[in-house]
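Researcher: I'm preparing a figure for a lab meeting and need a structural model of a single chain. I don't have an experimental structure, so a prediction will have to do for now. The sequence is pasted below. Please return the structure as tokens so I can convert it later.
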Amino acid sequence: MTKIVIVMIMQTFKKLCCSCKEEKEPHNFHNNKKSIDGKQAKCKQCTNEHSSKYRKENREKLQAKRNYNCKKYQAQQLVRTAVKKGRLIKTTCEQCDSLEKTIGHHDDYDKPLDVRWLCCACHGAWHSEHGEARNAR
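Model: Understood. Here is the structure written out token by token.
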């Protein structure tokens, strides 16, 4: 009941973009769970323009990062695509059975589709204890 009321209120107000200073409908803002109103401070258009500008201005930096972590980047891309196409199914965390968002963890980047699904906390703990996965570079 409360959630329906909040959604109805959200649909009636307009939000001010912190970048272009225009008032826009809530659907013109990306979602942000941490924000009080559940939306980003910048509108989608300003966010996209900022992202495009950053990618153009930092092309070499981003490419160097991809090259440095080439195997890692390619493995992550393959997992993302396999999940999207239904070839890999995300499950609960293999260590704590948490229903929280899980991450495909690679023990060996030479086996890109061989992943263990871990929640953020377990994934961070694994890397704190074991360091980088095998064949990361």
